[in-house]
Amino acid sequence: MTDTSEQDRVIIFDTTLRDGEQSPGATMTHDEKLEIASLLDEMGVDVIEAGFPIASEGDFEAVKEVAARSVNAVICGLARAKTGDIDRCWEAVKFAAQPRIHTFIGTSPLHRAIPNLDMDEMADVIHESVTHARNLCDNVQWSPMDATRTEDDYLCRVVEIAIKAGATTINIPDTVGYTAPAESAELIRMLLERVPGADSIIFATHCHNDLGMATANSLAAVDAGARQIECTINGLGERAGNTALEEVVMAMKVRNDIMPYRNRIDTTKIMNISRMVATVSGFPVQYNKAIVGKNAFAHESGIHQDGMLKNAETFEIMRPEDVGLSETNLVMGKHSGRAALRAKLKDLGHELADNQLKDVFVRFKALADRKKEIFDDDLLALMRDSTSDAAHDHIQLKHLRVVCGTEGPQTADMTLLIEGVEHEVSTQGDGPVDAAFNAVKALFPHEARLQLYQVHAVTEGTDAQATVSVRMEEDGKIAMGQSADTDTVVASAKAYINALNKLLVRRQKTKPA
Ligand code: KIV
Ligand code: ZN
Fold first, then answer.
1. Which atom of ligand 1 lies closest to the CA of 19?
2. How far is the C-alpha of 513 from the C-alpha of 510, rounded, in Å?
3. Which of 20, 38, 458, 507 could form a disulfide with 465 if both were Cys (CB 3.0 to 4.6 A apart)?
């Protein structure tokens, strides 16, 4: 179990891969989950909730592999209060050096009505499920879902049952983001005072952000005695999301005078993982988001800039470097060499082996030929593009020429390599992007539905690269495609093809043997 011997130590429990991934459309691939788990482990997260193993074969495999590869973190899986769920969860997490089973049931009146259990019947289910989990694993977390709308007396009763049955962490979820900070603190205080055995376990706080109070509620709960915060990178999560890891961690760091708690997070890794999660989930970070938003450290107004130049502390309560933003943003141009590129990418959190560097360098030079100044964000977009294994993709873009302008019809001439064989077509569409997408569809007919198409400029200026995200759905399977290019239509076609390739991999994986 995580060492919690010291009173001021707060356990950081990240659920990006479980509650975060539950956001409609935020589905991540197996490899993306592994990469995020490894970044979470590296940054010092204590507990990684890697998924809900009973939910699907894919979830099971991901939790199992995250568990097998884990280095420092406790690896946790979620399970309903059912023997089958708990067994499946154990089958996946048992490969971790430090496994945890997290089992839950909804305890509020509304949630009790769903399985139609009365208070006593539910109490029995809780006793049996936690006992079963504890017989499998020494580290068991139990959650009364919708705890903040559960009657106080009943909540105390079921928490006591779970502790007696062997739960080592009791999580108090504000499932619908209904609570206010004073109530969040009061709830933890009440449980600590009233529940026998409460001092022998860790209380966790798990907040949702429906009223924008998740961070405040989590910190208030810690002030009252909770010692585990459940959170996600960028606050990813269903509806308005979960508590944002970067917000609670930086709040405890910057205001340690009034929140004297410690955690193991290396805050300089925050930006890198934030960008990674935004990319793979397809949920871009809002510009004015605390800590990780593009404008979080930008000082536009003249008064602010003047103050900043004289003394950065005038308007800055934390330094950009504290969250992993490097100070100089203008990086390189076409004369920059391989060593400089390697050093800059290392600075941005990407350490490359020689063969990877060789490939990225070729792409960097191609970009530098088209774009005079290359910024950090350009390099990060380049890296994201090169993580998709284009050379092995089933479908590859070989050539694209579009005709567009005030005089339609907009036309796309496209050549694709499909399993290495060239196919050509010329199609029309309602605009150049539509024409390009129609060309892909004509060359590779499919039923997948386009759910989302998003374009962002990576940097400023008319020569900026466009990052395009495309989300596609086929038979309930969802895939995100991404690409960046100074030509928006090329980036769009590549992102569409990237999503299709991912769907093909999924089709393959779920094909009956
Ligand atoms: O919000 C919630 O109640 C949850 C539980 C499953 C812990 O995510
Ligand atoms: Zn939740």
1. 8
2. 9
3. 458
User: What is residue 301's predicted lDDT score, i.e. its pLDDT?
Assistant: 53
Report whether pLDDT(112) > 70.
Answer: yes
CA pair distance 291, 273, nearest whole angstrom? 13
Q: Is 173 in the pocket of ligand 1 (CB under 6 A)?
A: yes
- pLDDT of residue 356 exceeding 90, the answer is no
The Cα–Cα gap between 360 and 374 comes to: 14
Q: For residue 482, how far is its CA from the centre of ligand 2 (angstroms)?
A: 28
For 289, the 3-state DSSP assignment is coil
Are residues 476 and 385 in contact, defined by beta-carbon separation less than 8 angstroms? no
pLDDT tens digit sequence for 394-429: 999 999 999 999 988 999 999 999 999 999 999 999
Q: 454 CA distance to ligand 1 centroid (A)?
A: 30
User: What single-letter DSSP state applies at residue 18?
Assistant: I
Is ligand 1 within 6 A of the CB of residue 104? yes
What's residue 303's pLDDT?
58
Give residue 2's pLDDT band: very low, low, confident or very high (50, 70, 90): very low
Q: Is the CB of 144 under 6 A from ligand 1?
A: no
Residue of 175, 184, 238, 239 best suited for mutating to test ligand 1, as the one with most atoms within 8 Å of CB:
175
- Write down the pLDDT at residue 261: 98
Contact (CB, 8 A) for 140 and 113: no
Give the CATH number of domain 395-509: 3.30.160.270
Q: Could you identify the atom of ligand 1 that is nearest to the CA of residue 145?
A: 3
Phi, psi torsion values for 459, nearest 5 degrees: -135, -170
* Closest to 191 in 3D by CA, of 238, 139, 227: 227
Phi-psi region of 169 (alpha: psi -120 to 50; beta: other; left: phi over 0): beta
Paired strand residues for 174? 207
Check if the beta carbon of residue 416 is closer than 8 Å to that of residue 443.
Answer: yes
pLDDT tens sequence across 50-96:
999 999 999 999 999 999 999 999 999 999 999 999 999 999 999 99
Q: Classify domain 12-281 by CATH number.
A: 3.20.20.70
Ligand 1 in reach of 60 Cβ (< 6 A): no
Q: From residue 297, how far is each of 110, 322, 393 by CA, in Å? A: 43, 11, 38
Which residues have C-beta within 8 Å of that of residue 502, sequence separation ≥ 6?
Answer: 29, 479, 480, 481
Strands across the sheet containing 449-457: 449-457, 466-474, 477-485
C-alpha 187 – ligand 1 centre gap (Å)? 17
Pocket residue to mutate for ligand 1, from 145, 171, 210, most atoms within 8 A of Cβ = 145
Q: What is the pTM of this model?
A: 0.82
Q: Which of 473, 461, 465 is nearest to 494 (CA)?
A: 465
